[in-house]
Amino acid sequence: MENKNIKTFKNIIFGTFLFLIIFLLTIFYLNLNSSNNLSDNSNVNTNNNTTDNLNTQLINYDKINTLEDGTKYIIHPNEILSGGVPKGGIGEEKGIPALDENNINWETPKKANNWIKDNELIIKLNYNGETRIYPFQILVFHEIVNDKFGDKPVLVTYCPLCGTSIAYKREINLNNKKTETKFGVSGKLYNSNLIMYDKLTDTYWQQIEGNAILGELTGDQLTPIDTNTITWEDFKNSDDYNNENIKVLSQKTGMNRNYGRDPYGNYYIEDYLLFPPKIQNKNSKIHPKEIILGIKIGDKYKGYLEKSILDNKNKIIEDIFENTTIQITKSENNEITFKNKKTNQTIIKERNMFFSWYAFHPGTQIYNIN
User: Fold this and answer.
1) Residue 226 to residue 126: CA distance in whole angstroms
2) Where do the structural domains in the chain lie, given as residue ranges?
3) Average pLDDT in the 311-319 region?
4) Global pTM?
């Protein structure tokens, strides 16, 4: 068995190698696209009743095209970029490996506190009568967790390049029947966002909104599950921290990763983008990495600055969008919930960096809550 020093050395070498690959690919991509990068120069207006007139640039997920070999697509393969890593395994060491039941172990919050720092982000998921915690320090190396809450298959996803943390029901429509499957990291990107593949059909799925974009199931869409992304400190300040029935995803994945050392460094706060999307809003006063909580009503989109909600002194905020009164509730530990006030139904939110939310929804409204 390798001693601890050899494992540490290997982790350092792996992290350095990964960084160099990403850096070199970034330089190549920027040079390749410097002459034809399509940037939108309109302003995102943060007034509540104004929107960008860019709906013609929205992706039409209802329009399914076909390649010469019969492959169905919504996003043409030429628009899909390599992220610099091979197709990832599911529960096995290959590319960026997604976690499955063989890699998933759990710890109590008190035990996890020994290795999670207060300022680290976590995904908190309440589903089917259970609460589970997924630390970003683990997700950054795997991006996908194929989990199960009782008999309910769940897909937990995180894209470090876009800051998107989203969960879905881990089911696809196969032969007109909801069918459980597993998902892996394709190694491909669109608009800088993670593209997943399912094990049964190898269809490509966009992480943002969960649309099937290339392959047999093109046109299908995963069913989202609402989650909250908060700091470990916020979680510790809640009653849940003392609940030993709450499970925290353990570092014991069977994978040789230096959890706790983020290979992306300062990427989350710097202006640069490793894989810039074609549609950008360079004139906006909003920082490209600012976190947006995005929602959809009908076929319209609206984003809310997370920081504005957290900084607001009010615990309940109301907004009207598409003739719907939206009630935004902030808990004591900074969990944020969107609901339709009339029906009391939860409105699923997506957590994205601004540049990513805008790239997929250039017609969005952005509401800066003062």
Assistant:
1) 8
2) 40-59+277-370, 71-249
3) 94
4) 0.86
